[in-house]
Amino acid sequence: MNWAVKRFYAAADIRPVEDGFAITLDGRIVKTPDGARLVVPTHDLAGAIAAEWAAQEKTVRPDTMPLARLAVAAIDQVCPDRRAVVDHLLAYIGTDLVCYRADSPADLVARQEAAWRPLLDWTNAACGASFVVTTGVMPVAQPPATKLALEAAIEPFDDMEIAALASTTKATGSVVVAMALAAGCIDAEEAFAAAMVDELFQMERWGEDAEAAARRQILRREIRAAARFFDLVR
Question: What is the pTM of this model?
């Protein structure tokens, strides 16, 4: 949905169809950029996406329609090649944010441990995935069993959930954080805080940067949208 057009419709609504609920504009089912019907599995999600369409003003701005974007990603990207999307998710195991720690200063080390250790403990308990933690930025190999365990944990997710999981993983740099958000172990603000431990520490030390602040707000919106999407799709 990397496009912007003049608003061309009067009303946005939803319609029950055989495979879920379609989003309609002036009675016609919306099509994704790849030409598929914009159909989602729950009434609540369809209503929320229709509300995003209804809220558009003179120009349709996809950047203000995060739920619609996630649904489109599920339909146009996950559905045609779910395996490729899951493989991309699993690739984050080798670079997951929560596994790479600072060795100093002591207060940053403590913050990282406080924010990330509970997530690693939860992933181990809930998914059977145990991660190796290291200091520095040199890649560390994770046990093969970790990938297998996470793959098994992701397998029950439907395509819509996979799209939200992929969005959160990309935004946070962590499949661990994304899985915890998807499971309801943490909420959107906790996921955002976990992703921003290092950056917020540096901000406190060196002051605010307008560009970095803008990036953080985009990240927060993406995580909030994914958390809401998880809730609405189930």
Answer: 0.94
